[in-house]
Amino acid sequence: MSGTEKTVGTRGLILNEPLVFEQGSPGRTAYSLPPSDVPERKAEALIPKRLLRDGIPGLPELSEVDVMRHFTRISQWNYCVDLGFYPLGSCTMKYNPRINEDMARIPGFAKAHPYQPEEVSQGALQLMWELEQYLADVSGMDRVTLQPSAGAHGELTGVMMIRSYHASRGNPRSKILIPDSAHGTNPASSALCGYKVVPVKEGPRGVVEPKAVAEVMDDEVAAIMVTNPNTLGLFEDRIIEVAKIVHAKGGQVYCDGANLNSVMGVSRPGDWGVDVIQINLHKTFSQPHGGGGPGAGPVALKKHLAPFMPVPTVEKQGNRFLLDYKRPKSIGKVRAFYASFGVMVRSYTYIRSMGPAGLRRAAEVAVLNANYILSQLKGVYHLPYDRHCMHECVFTDALQARHDIHTLDIAKRLIDYGFHPPTIYFPLIVKGALMIEPTETESKETIDQFVAAMKRIAQEAQENPELLRLAPHNPRVTRMNETKAAREPKLRWRPVS
Amino acid sequence: MRYIPNTDADCRAMLQAIGVRSVEELFADVPPAVRLKRPLKVPPAMAESDVARHLRALAAKNADADRYAMFLGAGCYNHFSPAIVNHLVLRGEFLTPYTPYQPEVSQGTLQALFEYQTLVCLLTGMEVSNASMYEGASATAEAVLMAHRVTGRTEIVMARAVHPDYRTVARTYASQLGVSFREVPFTEAGVTDFAQVRKALNERVACLVVQSPNFFGGVEDLAPLAEAAHAVGALLVVAVAEPIALGILKPPGECRADIVTAEGQGLGTGLNFGGPALGFFATRDKFIRHMPGRLVGETVDREGRTGYVLTLATREQHIRREKATSNICTSESLIGLMATIYMVTMGPTGLRDVALLNLRKAAYAKERLAKVRGVGLRFSGPTFNEFVLRTRKKPGEVLTSLLKRQIIGGLDLGRFYPELKDCLLVCVTEQNSRDEIDALAKALGGGR
Asked: How does pLDDT run across B424-447, given as a tens digit for each residue?
C-alpha cells in the first residue's frame, strides 16, 4: 500500500435518522418551566380571542433524550474542521480555538443587554473599542465599524459609505469596476447600492494590470473592488499603481478582505492605497463557520470616510467608553443594536492569544503550506498560473479531462479519502478550477496525506475512471439529484392531512 | 503557537521541497515599499489561563441578567435556553463546517436547516422560509427590497410602532435604490393607527410594514391591515421581534401577511449584547424565486435515498452576481440550529406555556406597576410581554435609581420617540420572578 493508507477516510457506524417531525408521541415533553408565581389567567382575558391561535399543529412532541439523539445522529453526517483537513479555497477553514467559545459564554458577555446603561456596559464597549484598534492596525486603516454581520454585509456597508461620500461631494457616481475573478458578492453588493458593474479583465499574469483599469476609469466610476490577495491566490502586485489611477479620477479603492489571512502582519491594505476593506472574522480571526454563520464583516476605512460610518460608533473619552450616535452624515444602520458581539469576543480572544508574532506567523505558515501543496501537485494537476502563490493555489482538471474526469469527480473522490473537497469551479475565469487553501493550522503530515490522496486520485483517473464518476462511495449518501431539487422544490415538511 | 502545528524543522523541510530558502521569498510579489517593518500594534500573546482571566475581568464590568433583575426587552429578550441547546451547538460537527456546499458530507447541517425552514413556517403560518438571515432588522430591510422587486413600486409605508432600529436599517438599505418611506403614527391604544394606514396606502406603495407585538408590546390586529394593503396591490410585511409571542398569538400567515420576518434570538440564543442574532424570512410559495438567502430542498441521491441540498441557487449572488435577489452569503446557520433545537425541545405545549407565562407575568407587572404613585400606563391596548409606563420623574433618573438596586428597569423611550420622553418601556419574561416585579414596584414608588 502507498502512503494513502494513512489517510483517514473509512466507514464507521452511521445511524439513519428520520426528520424530527416524524418522531415522538403525544404528551411527551423535553422542557420544564417553573410553576407560575403570578395569578393564572386565561390568554383570552388579556388579548382578544380573534388575535390568538389554537395551537401549533405539526410540531413534534419529544423527550430530551429524543432531541439529544436526533441532533447528535444527524451531526455525525457532517464533515468539519474538527474532523480533518478542510481546504476550501477563499474560506480560510482554520482551527477554531475552544477558549473562544468559553469566553463568549461568560455571563457578563452572554447575558448583557445591548440597551443596558453604558456605565454598566464598560467591559463590552472596551472590548469593542480595543478590537477596533487591533483591526485598524492589521489593515492599516483609521477607523473600523464592527456592525456588519458577514463579509457580504461588510461589502454592502463599505459601498454604501463610498456612495454617501461621493454624494456629499455632489455626485454619487454610477459605476463600480470589478475584476472578473471576484466573488459574486462584490457585484451583488454594488447592485444593491444602485451601481452598474463594469468588469475588468485580469492580465496574463493573473492580476489586474494598471492599463486595463486606466481604460475604463472615468469620473462616473465610484470605486474599484479588488480582492487582494485575489481568488487565484496571487498578490495583486500592481495594486499601488491601480489605486493611484483610481484616486486620480476621484474614485475609491475597496478591497475585499476575504483573503487577509495571508498578509496579516506582513503587509497592510491601507499602505497599498486601499480606502475601505471588510475583514471576515469567520475567516482570518477564527470565528467558527457554524455550517454557514454566524460570521462578522467589520469594515475598516480611511478617515475621510469616517463621517459616513453606521451609528453608533464606540468612542473613548478619558477612561470611559461610550456609544456615539451623533454622526449626521452616517449612512444609518445595517443591523439592529451594535454588532454580532459574541463573534467580537471570539476574535478578540484569538488576537490576544496570538499576539503580534503569532498573527504574522499564521500568515507566513499559511502561505508556506499553500506553496508546499502547489509544489507537490504541480505536474500531477494542471497549474494555470505557474508562480508562487499566497494563501491558496488553484489547479484545474485539464490533465484528467482527457479521461473524461472532471473537477467534480476529483472533489467527490477526495471525500472517500477522508478530506473535504477544495472550492471547485471558482474563480470562474479558470475552467474546472480546484482552489486549495490549507491555512496555517494544518501540519506537514496532514498535507502530505492530502497530497498522497490527490496523487492517487490522478492515477485512478487513468486506471479506473468509473470509480471517480461514482464517487463518493463512503458517506451515508452519494451524489444528490440537484436537478430534481430545483425542478420540484420541496422546501419544508408538511403535516399529513 | 498552539494553533500552528508546523515546527521550524517542518517549515525547513517544506521550504526545501518548494525550492526556496526562506518564507520571505514566497512574499516576493508584495512590493518592498508596502511590507510592514514593525510588529503589529497588538498586545503580546497570552497563555490560555491569562486570556481567560483578562476576559473575565472585562466581563465583570458589565451588568448581566444573572446579577441584575432584567426588565429590558426592546427587540432583545431575556429567555431561558435549555442546556441541550448549548451542548448540541458546541459539537464540532455543527460548529466547524462551512456552508453546506458538498451535500454528501453536510447532511447533518442540511437536514437541520430543512427542519428549521419547516419550524419557521409552522410558527409564522407561512408557506416557505429561507435558511436564515443575519437578524431581524436587516431581514425586514430585505423584505422591503423584495416587495419593491415584486411590485415594481417605490414607496413604503411603515408603522412608527416598528422597532426604531428596524426602521433605520430598512431606510438605510432601501434609500440606496431610491425607495421612499412614509411613517404611520400609533394610537392611544399603542397600536398602529388604522385610519392613517388607509390614508397612506395608494397604488404607488410596494408594502406596508408593521410589527407585532409592536415596539411598545402592543398586539396589532393584522387581518384588516392585510386587507387594506392588498386592496391597493401592496404587500403586507410583518416583523416579529419577539417570536415567543407566536406561541399564543395568531400567526401572521393566517392573517394573510405576504412576508414575515422575525428576530430569532429569543429562541434559545440569549442576549449577547445584541448579537449574533437570527433573521427569519418567510413568505408565500408564489414568491419563492424572488426570495433572498439560501434555501434547502429535499431530493434523492443516485441510489434513491432521501437527502437534502442547497437549491434554487439561480436567485443567488454566486450564480447571478449583480442580478441576484440579495448579496447574502454567510448568514446565521448555527443560530438557526439553536432556534431549531429550542423549538423542538419546547414542542407545541412548551411554546404555548412559555408564551402564557410571559403574558401572565407581564400582566401582573402591568397592573402592579400602574398602581404605583407617580406611574401610569401610557397606552390602553392589549400587550404581550412588554408595556409602556408614563413616569412623573424623568425616565432616565428613574432608571439610574433602579440600577443602584440591581434592577435594569427598561428603556427610556425618549431615546427614540421625542413624543414619549416621559415614558419607560418595560419587559417581563418567564425569567422575572414575582419577587423581582414586586421589588421593581417598590423601587419605582420610592420605597426601600
From this structure: 999 999 999 999 999 999 999 875
Which chain A residue lies closest to B412 (C-alpha atoms)? A115
Same domain, B185 and B325: yes
DSSP assignments along B245-294, one per residue: GGGTBPPGGGGT-SEEEEE-TTTTT--GGG-S--EEEEE-GGGGGG--S-
Q: Chain A contact for B329, CB < 8 A? A: yes
Of A21, A357, A472, the CB nearest to B45: A357
- Count Cβ atoms within 10 A of the Cβ of residue B419 and give its class: 0-12 exposed, 13-18 middle, 19 or more buried: exposed
pLDDT tens column, A119-149 = 999 999 999 999 999 999 999 999 999 999 9
Which is nearest to B166 in space by CA: A336, A438, A391?
A: A336
CB-facing half-sphere around the CA of A368: CA atoms within 13 A: 30
In a domain, B423, yes or no: yes
Q: What is the dihedral of CA B170, B176, B182, B188, to 10 degrees?
A: 20
Kindly report whether the global pTM for this prediction surpasses the value 0.90.
Answer: yes
For residues B200 and B187, membership in a common domain is answered with: yes
Residues 394-423 of B with CB under 8 A from A: 399-400, 403, 408, 411
Question: Which segments of B310-409 does DSSP mark as H helices, in order?
Answer: 317-320, 333-370, 395-403
Do B315 and B385 have their domain in common?
no
The per-residue pLDDT for range A289-299, each reduced to its tens digit, is 999 999 999 99
Query: What mean pLDDT value characterizes chain A?
Result: 96
Same-domain pairing of B252 and B162: yes
Provide the number of structural domains found in chain B: 3
Last residue of a domain, one of A352, A383, A399: A352
- Show Cβ contacts of residue B357 under 8 Å, excluding neighbours closer than 6 positions: A33, A36, B430
What's the CATH code of the domain at B173? Answer: 3.40.640.10
Q: Is A120 within 8 Å of B63 when comparing Cβ atoms?
A: yes
A26 and A130 in a single domain? The answer is no
Range A307-329 average pLDDT: 98
pLDDT band at A404 (very low <50, low <70, confident <90, very high): very high
How many domains does the structure of chain A reveal?
A: 3
* Minimal C-alpha gap between B404 and chain A (Å): 11
Rounded to a whole number of angstroms, the distance from the CA of B153 to the nearest CA of chain A is 16
ipTM of the complex: 0.97
Based on its alpha-carbon atoms, the radius of gyration of chain B, rounded to whole angstroms, reads: 25
State whether B253 and B380 are in the same domain. no
Q: Please indicate if any CB of chain A lies within 8 Å of the CB of B311.
A: yes
Say if residue B255 is in the same domain as residue B196. yes
Grid cell digits, residue B282: 418567510
Contacts of A421 in chain B (CB under 8 A): 102
Strand partners, A323: A314
Nearest CB neighbour to A37, from listed B87, B173, B434: B434
Say if residue B249 is in the same domain as residue B115: yes
Query: Is A479 in contact with B104 (Cβ distance < 8 A)?
Result: yes
Tell me if B330 and A282 make a contact (CB, 8 A cut-off): yes
Do B266 and B245 have their domain in common?
A: yes
CA B32 centroid distance within chain: 46
CB contact under 8 A, A369 and B254: no
Give the structural domain span for A404. Answer: 361-483
**A102 phi and psi angles, rounded to 5 deg:** -60, -40
> Contact, B243 vs B213, CB < 8 A?
no
Contact A58 B314 (CB under 8 A): no
